[in-house]
Amino acid sequence: MLVFEPKVSSVIRTDAAPTPQAPAPDGPLPPETLERVHRFWMAANYLTVGQIYLQENPLLEEPLRPEHVKQRLLGHWGTSAGLNFIYAHLNRLILQRDLDVDGISHAVDFRGMAMYGP
Question: pTM, whole model, 2 decimals?
Fold first, then answer.
């Protein structure tokens, strides 16, 4: 059997039995879970836009003015919403299945981004 070995960042051949996985849920996710994932995703998108475009007033506590916007943008929006969507669902799976995840983009610690308790 082939398994991914993160220590060498590659697939290796092993004779070990596969690790049992939690069964996949029957049907779609419950509405409460979808609502929590959606709120997590929207909050992450809001933070992303603020980091890319704003240099002041990130919580929009006052009306947005031109001097709040960065003169030179660092980053881009193109892939951000999709990555935040993946992160939101990875967070859900990590909490749901009590997984240990290492090596995700920029060493993100998903357990610190909990949207709801285990």
Answer: 0.62
